[in-house]
Amino acid sequence: MKKLSRVVFAYDGGFAKAADGKVYSQGGFPAENWGRYLEFAEELIVTARMHDEESAAGVLSSRDRVAFVRVPSISSPTHVLTNRPLAREILEREIGLADHLIVRLPSEIGLLAIRIARRLGKKFSIELVGDPLTALAHHKKLYARLYAPLLSLRVRRAIARSQACIYVTRRTLQALYPCTGLSASASNVNITLAPWSDVQEVLRIKLNKQRKSFGLIGSMVTNYKGVDIAIRALSLLIGKGHDCELHILGSGDHAHLEDLAGSLGVAEKVYFDGTRNSSPEVLEWLDQQTFYLQPSRSEGLPRSLIEAMSRGLPSAGSDRGGIPELLPESFIFANMEHTGLSAIMERLLELQPDEYLKAGRNAYETAAIYERKNLDEIRYNFWKESLI
C-alpha cells in the first residue's frame, strides 16, 4: 500500500512547546494517537494554536514523522481582525504542499483550512467531536452565544461538502450534521478494559465504605462540564442528611466554585483533586470513587464518562450530546436542573449491594463497545478508504 507523502491536520488545538522543543497536549492528543494517520502518510503536519512554556504540562504529543506548525488564534473577534491574515498565509503554505487535509471540528482554524483546501482543489476529511451550537450556548461571552447558530451552520455546510466524516457519536451528531460522503462512528476514546473480575473486586471493596463519593472529571476553564450543577446537587443531598462527597479532577481556576460550595454550606464535602498526567493515574483516581457524574452543558461523547464506566462506576449525566447513548434513561437528567441530578444521585446512594454491582456490570459492558481494539479497526478502515 502506497502512503501519501504529506497530510495536514488542522484544529484550534491546545498545545504547549517546552524549552527542549517537545510539544505537549492539554487533552486528547497523546503521541500514540497520531499513529492512526501515519499508517497512511509518510509525514503529518499539525497546524494548531501553540504557546511556549519553560516546562510544559500535559501529555507528550511529539513523535517521529509529526511536525507542529504554530497558527495564531482566530477564535475571537479581536483575533480574527489581527491574526487571520497570518493564519491564512500559514495554512495556504502547508495545505498547498499537502496531499490531503484532515480537519477536526468545531474549530475556527479547521474551517479556514477547509475554505483554503476547497479553493486549492485539495481533498479533505473531517472529524466531528462536538456540537458547536450547544458548546457556545453557555459561553461566558455574549458574542460567543450570539455566534453559536452561525458557527453551527458553517460546520453543517463544511460536513455536507466533505468527502468523508468520522463522528465520535453513534447517532446524535450524525443527525445534526449529516455527511453525504463516506462516514463512520468511532469515539476519540482509547480504553483497554481490565478483566471484569478485577473491576468487580474493586467495586466490592467500595461497598464497605461508609462515606460514598461522586467523581467528576472536567476542565474548569469554562462552565461546560457543569461542575457548579454537581455542587448544587450535592448540597441538596447533604441537606437531607446523606453522608457523601464530591471529588473533581481537572484544570482551571476553581475559586468561584469553592465560593459556591462555601455559600451552600458544603465546602468541606467538595474536593478539588488537581490533574493527573497519565491514563493509569486517572483510572486509579476513578477507582477511589463510588459513582461518577457527567452533568455537561455541552458534550460530544465524553471520554471521561466511558473511562469511569470501564471501571464499573454507576453514573449519572445530562441529556446533552452523546451522553444518552451511554447511560440508561433513568440515570439521565434534563434541562440542566440540579434538582433532577440530585434525585438520581440519591437513587445511586440507595442502591443495595447487588443492585450496585449490577449497575456497575452494565456500565462496564457499555464501555466495552469503546474498547480500543474495536475502535482501531473502525478508524483504520475509515482512514484507509478516506486517504488512499
From TrEMBL:
Keywords recorded for this protein, A-Z: Transferase
Keyword flag Transferase: yes
Superkingdom, natural source: Bacteria
Coiled coil ranges: none
Xref: Pfam families: Glyco_trans_1_4
Keyword Protease set for record: no
GO molecular function terms noted in the UniProt entry: transferase activity
Protein name: Glycosyltransferase involved in cell wall bisynthesis
